[in-house]
Protein 1
Amino acid sequence: MKHDPKASHCQCGGKMSRRGFITALGVGAAGVAATGAMTARTATAKETPMIPSGEMARIDLTVNDRAHTLLVEPRWTLLHVLRESLGMTGTKAGCERGECGACTVLIDDIPRYACLTLAMEVQGRRIVTLEGLMEGEKLGPVQEAFLEEDAFQCGYCTPGQIVAAEGLLRADPNPSSETITRAMSGNLCRCGTYPHIHNAIQSAAGKRR
Amino acid sequence: MLPNFAYSRPRKLTDAVAHLADAKNGRVHAGGTDLIGCLRDGIFKADTLVSISGIEDLHGIEETGDGGLRIGALATITEVADNALVKERYAGLAQGASEVASPQLRNQGTIGGNLCQKPRCWYYRGEFHCLRKGGGICFAAEGDNTFHCLFGSDDVCYITHPSDTAPNLAALNATVHITGPEGKRTVAADAFHMPPSVDVQAETVLRPGEIVTAVTLPPPPRGLRSSYRKVRARRSWDFALAGVALALQFDGDTVKNGRVFLSGAAPVPWRSRPVEKAIIGKKLDDATIKKAAEASVEGAMPLAKNGYKIGLFQGAVAEELAKIAAG
């Protein structure tokens, strides 16, 4: 893994391994050498190759405006890559099944669950995590509002709550109370700080104006 | 960590079809919200994922030449719920889409995936080798069947179909567009889902290697009003305990024609012909609504623990008919 700010946004998932290279060649060769014994099925040439099971692929991810080029297994989720490959632990692993919201990130400004998103799927998209809401060492307005309104207790769901709130405010800078409730309905808080979270978002909307 | 799989994300539908045809046990990845969860939980195995998310032609919602609407299979549930044309002309579908799961899942899940999703029976989703997973027994029949069906089990499998968009697409006479190794074909939305008596291990009529590419809606007929009501235990995330999708053509106050589908009722979106019969040709006055509500549970076969759904359906149908009558 390396950080390369000038990395191109290759969407092909170009493969690095020798075995993958040979396999891809093999498919092409079969296309050329197809005989009566080979079915048309195996001979079909494809523009985008298959990455064999267990092999890694090189991808370009843009996280918080920084371009990263890294090797991933296709089965790795964005949550896994953020935390384990990039060391960005602001995005939390909760249920890892799309039922809690702790892993919420913004993808092209839209809140999504990183636990149900394969890293391969978000090449060329703008990914924003909790870390990306900081303004240098200073907290962003939503973070500040959560702190001021005491909008957390144990804090585990908080990054997901803050990112979901940020997504809401980017789409709707003046949300009604009902809109806030609906937009935040994909994030659970087991400490039950919902009323404070609600207040924090109203306060954050004011701070962002 | 998910189990290993081969993966490709082609830009062309022909590539996707070819990759699926090559795979021994391939699965289509669209939004991935259901697929990734199922793989993580080992509900089924996949040696190959063919992601169609990079195929530009499968995105978008646009008006068709005949005044209908084409919704690309990759249109997200949020895009369907928020689309101005869907809201204006096919309100029931917009309402159904807006009631799906949670905001994040609606932002990622697609209309094609919503039609193809796996059932939510807790035996199917749990560590039970049930009929639907190739086992020899349905555990819900004698087990905890609180969230199971009232209709259409054929005494085989008691799931309820989890989609909120499917009953609306069926009510609105939508068509599902499919491409596979044999070429293109279409299936009416009301015939897209598989009754358990025909094939208990399939949820849809898709054949191996086939991909849903779009759904189309016919131009709204004159006097069309559509709506969807979903009753659930909590306001977010949850699946329908009972739901009703209405697509009715009014002539003044009279229901000239219409289609009514129930969600949370059966293993497939369930067409309620008794409700249709009770309202077609009638004005939706109190007496007609009462009859229609009773008709909605005609032929229901409650299990040990889901009898409460009888009242839910009657209430939901009555309330939704009163609402649609008021315009």
Protein 2
Amino acid sequence: MTARPAATDVSQQGTLLPKTDAAVPPDLGRAERRDWRALLNNKWVLRALFYGAIAVAWQVTAMVKGEFFLPTIPATISGFGELFTEGYASSLLTSVRQLVLGFVIALAIAIPLGALMGRSKIANDIFAPWVNTLFVTPKQTLLPILIIAFGIGFWYRAWVVILFAVFFPCINTAAGVHYVDRELREAARAFATGRWRMLTRIYLPAAAPFIVAGIRLGFGMAVKGMVIAELWILADTGALLETFSRSPMRLDLYYALVLLIIGFAVAVNELLKWAERKLRPAAHMAGQV
Amino acid sequence: MPSELDQASVEVQGVNKSFRHQLEDTDLKVLDDVSLSFQGGTFTCVVGPSGCGKSTLLRVIDGLIPPDSGVVTIGGEVIKKPSLDRGFVFQQFNLLPWRTVIANVEFGLENLGVGKEERRRRAKEILKIVELEDFERYYPGQLSGGMQQRVGLARALAVDPSILLMDEPFGSVDDQTRMLLQDELLGIWEKNQKTVIFVTHDIEEAIYLADRIVVMRARPSRVTRIVDVPFGRPRDESIRGSAEMGRLKQEIWNELKSGATVEG
Amino acid sequence: MEAMTARIPGKRRRRRPPTRRVDAATIGRWILSFALFFALWELIGRSDLTVAIVPASEVLPDLWDELTQGDLIEATFGTLEIAAVGYAISAVIGLLVGLLIGLSRPWADVLDPIVSAMLSAPIAMFIPVIAVYLGLEFKAKVVGVVLFCVFIIIVNTQTGIREVPQSGIEMARAFGTNRRRIYTRVIFPWASPYIITGLRIAVGRAVEGAILFDLFLRAENLGLVIRNATGTFDLSVLLGAVFFITILAAGLMGIARIIEWRLLRWKSY
């Protein structure tokens, strides 16, 4: 059983390398549209129209239904401000710090393991059952065990992040290393390339886009783990249900927070996607693409 | 009453086609005032350097691409869109990978509305002609390049078109297979002489197969010369190494070279 | 496109050329691997390493009791029901939207940012919002599962359609295929591997999501089992439940993979 690679835009055990964003819908031979309708073809115009309409709908609904149903747009924006001034910011930063730390540990485990699994069939045979099985386990079920084992301190959160984040980098690295073109390897061996050089000049560049793709997906999972870890603490103590049933929620703060988290996740995601794209020529030259 | 062969004659008149270059925002003129006529029942090869528009020309004739100006008539009727009077064979085979060989051959027949049993019968017949009758139930992915192209040919022949358009059909197979396929194609054609327009960049192939050769050039993309092939039919393999073949090759090659350098 | 066959631990599969072979040695290592797992579990459980782990020899018999006499099976069905309903809805929405985005440039331009953002965003953080607007019961949970699954299906469907080579469509047009048939006979079959993969992945997501919402919204079914075990500090039941859910999830995904493999057999050529 081989650990299967995760695709990039087609996450979780799909294809190998990401397709470029230049992919175009199939052309059925319709005539080309010129004239003013070409304006409608401009993607920014379309987005402005669509999201503008949504923003208007949001604002109107918020004003009609009141702030306990939906915060108005200005309220959400000021919610951002409040997040930073009211001291929530420092706890957010702590969370982010723990997230990053846990993530780095996860990578330190996942990538070498993945590389090993990619190179050695024996290692793959031994580890792959674990990896693949744990991969499909709903990890939220492990949270209670973790709390009992570690309390609610740093290590609890770290372990949650590690558990969530470790799979994609591992599986992707394994696939990237495994699929390095055999002919390339043979050529390198024919030139008596030493072990170290094989690793750095052939395997790493060839596998690099896969690895970065794995890191990118892993990071998404790390954020997810972090959120769930925090939520579980609230839920476990019953505080979560209380907030829903009793005191009215500060929805403006909450929406601001949600948008912030989404923004954060998307930003990191795009950054890593860019890195992937940059690495693809190197992979191409290493015979991978 | 026009004869069947007249129905299969193709007239290209004053065809122009430009493509808009997506990124550079310029127009690329792919066909520049091209006029040709193909007599019914003849085998014509179109040779030219890459970029000379020969593949585009073929697609305009088929109706896949509308010309900017000019007109294509077949048997006197103007062509507007693809139809099953014309069969097309693609360079990259373009088989549907999830269908078996025989199901691929039946593809065009389905669009004709032919019933299931009749389709099967005809497909089997055609497969016998291209010598693939033992491979009915195979999938394209299991076949070699040469075999896949024979399926492509079978698919085109199955709809019994009066005109066969072939776009560098043997360009994706190795030399030896190519020569075998050429002989096969000639064998099939000689039994039932459709009008064939065959695009290729291989001069020897063009001479071996065709009654006449249309030489094109690039930039501007137009026809420079039409050469009649002096060999009789049926073609004999011995032509391949003959002095006459060599001389013709040189002649056409010179024509191509000069066409390529004029514009500079 | 790379192959997507299943690999189930412990089961023998027909070998496929480009991927790794499953031979006797491999199966031997799998067995060794699982044996090691149980051995480790037993050892850690008996040691003083952590209170959280109870040895397998205690957990497994308890689990068996729960299964045969307790309501674990019922709880499982409850959660699976939520997963199934959510999955069905996601599949329908996902396929339709995916088709829309895949075929139409303008719609893709508009909706891509949302789909992309929702893929990288942790859905769990929408739990409060779901609770406020939809309550804590079945309806809310189903919506949560839909949120979990639908974006994967959309993206896979979209990519599948984008992957259809223009040459295939050209061929179909050359052979006089009308528009409707181009969709059904060319585009859809060519996109199907991706679509089916997306649907398979979504199975796992649906189960995950259902458990998540059974834990965090109103604790019910499997979520309740876990909550109760946590509350009473009954680690044996807790570990048993986790073990059981793991096997369940792995089993479901395995089945999904077999179905996928069956449907896509032509790809292996």
